[in-house]
Prior knowledge:
The structure holds 2 protein chains of 2 kinds.
Chain A: H1 2-11, E1 17-18, E2 36-45, E3 59-69, E4 74-83, E5 96-113, E6 116-129, E7 146-157, E8 160-180, E9 183-205, E10 216-228, E11 240-252, E12 256-265, E13 272-281
Antiparallel strand pairs in A: 1-9, 2-3, 2-13, 3-4, 4-5, 5-6, 6-7, 7-8, 8-9, 9-10, 10-11, 11-12, 12-13
Chain B: H1 2-19, E1 22-29, H2 34-44, E2 50-56, E3 61-66, H3 74-83, E4 87-101, E5 105-109, E6 112-117, E7 122-129, H4 137-145, H5 151-154, E8 173-178
Parallel strand pairs in B: 6-8
Antiparallel strand pairs in B: 1-3, 1-4, 2-3, 4-7, 5-6, 7-8
Helix pairs in contact in B: 2-3
Amino acid sequence: MRIFLVLFLSFIPSLSSAQELYINTEPASLIPRGTKVVRLNHHSIFLNGTNIMGGIGNAIIMSPSISYGLSKKIMVSGSFQFSNKPYEQDMMPNFGFSGFKLYSKQRILTTDKQKYHTRLSSFIKYSYHDNKFMKDNLDIELQDTGFEFGIIGTQLINKLAISVTSAVTRISNIDEKYTSGSTVKWQKINLNTIQNSISAGYLLFPRKYKSYKQTNFNLYLEYLTNTILTRNFPDRYHKFSSTLAPGIQFIIMSRSRLDFSYKIRSGEMPDEFVVKLTYIIY
Amino acid sequence: MKKILITISLFLIFNIGYSQSFYSNLKAVGLTCAMCSYSTQKSLEKLDFIKSITPDLEATSFKLEFKEDEFVDFDLIQEKVEDAGFFVGSIEIVFTDNIKAENDKHNLISGNLFHFFSDEEIDSRVFTIVDKKFIRKSEYKIISEKTSHSCYETGLHTASCCSNHENLKSNKVFHLKSSL
Lengths: 282, 180
């Protein structure tokens, strides 16, 4: 994990410009009014357990999404998720629907000067998922159900763009074991969590912008944390967990994006490979 | 002799009337990627009166050329930049020929009414839009103290404010200050 940090930091002085099209978090900026952004998200989670058939079960998740700029201050977005069921011993292909997400972001504040700006936005998200891939992890992006409300701040000063996100989440699909008399039963409980993240992005190529046709190559580093606020929670979860996500991005013809990111989770939790393909429709 | 004079003067009027036009240099701020510039360009392309857009990606500026027979509404240009999520840093207007900028006087150029401010009478080709929405409050205050015309406050041409002009394409007035 540290090697990534060192490598990344040693790159910084040679970079020419900041970028804020983060891969694993949203920037405070909105999409332009009247434009649609379509995206295909792919996640491979390298589950470290084995399933009953004896093979290593990797979770494969595909999720198409569409976003729309309602005005210069509000954008909305929705997505469906399809995935395999890595814990089921099914010889048949078991790829199927496993959830959806609704999201809206609102611009609160913007101050723009030449190569210097501050942006502040709020967002609300509802997410429904019926397939839990990581039994000891909380993640409404991929596998849990709940509401989230948060604030995003992005600060750009010359070559450095830092974005900070802080969100509270109420997760409602947590299974908890309890005993009633002599029988053991399961019930659904809610957990409140707070998520904080910090993201930075840099433009590596091109050195000089001349045309929209030049492919941009960007480097990203994101650090995401999750803290459980609810006092009593099932002991398979950790009160604090974190993810480090380095990533690279290609911007092609100024209207398509191809993102790759590798999420390294703390503790015993599995790593994840993320690929995102984005296209803007004007 | 009379005929020759008439022909010459007609020729001159014709020339003055149709040769003086302008283009703009729009400086956008807050753009941090090629995608941002492209979004801004796409948003600007929706405006009918723009003939062509030439971006300078390094400087995040756009050279805008306009259709000759249409009114150029700089408020809409600003709106389109903001729709894309960015801001107008400044808009420069570059005339094809030098213009004598008499302070606090109006000038009708290819159907667009401009109101000029200048510290001294100068001939110049390059001016900057100094309307309320395009500059800082403090700058606006300084200029507004120097003019008695209400159009600087309202942005509109009215009989009580400005002298009569024929062939106005719009009653909007944009205010210019020499960039020198």
